[in-house]
Amino acid sequence: MIVFKHRGNFKHTERLFNNLPKIDFRRLLEKYGKEGVQALASNTPVDTGKTAASWGYEIRIAKGSYTISWVNSNIQNGIPIAILLQYDHATRTGGYVKGRDYINPSLQPIFDRIADEAWKEIKRL
Length: 125
Prior knowledge:
By secondary structure, this protein is of the alpha+beta class. The chain contains four helices and six strands; from the N terminus they run ααββββαββα. The strands form three sheets. Strands 1-2 form a two-stranded antiparallel sheet.
């Protein structure tokens, strides 16, 4: 049998959850969305520069959930060029192109700053 006993109250936890809607997470994500676009654009391998110039971001909010996605609109013949640059791929002529991991190193510092700033906002409550 499992028994759970507690003393005291949950006033601090309740205060935290009651105040979460007051944090402007959209503003936070807009700020870092722009930073992510700049980081991706500056780290994208360049041939013509079209892929580097095609970065953007989208923010989705649904039932208290916030999602940020970075997107690249350079698609040739149904193939997203940013993904071809990121991962190894074969060419039409039978050749092989080694991918270059540029997306993860570009965004990791931004993920860390989002987490740090969100945590600061939560602790401020």
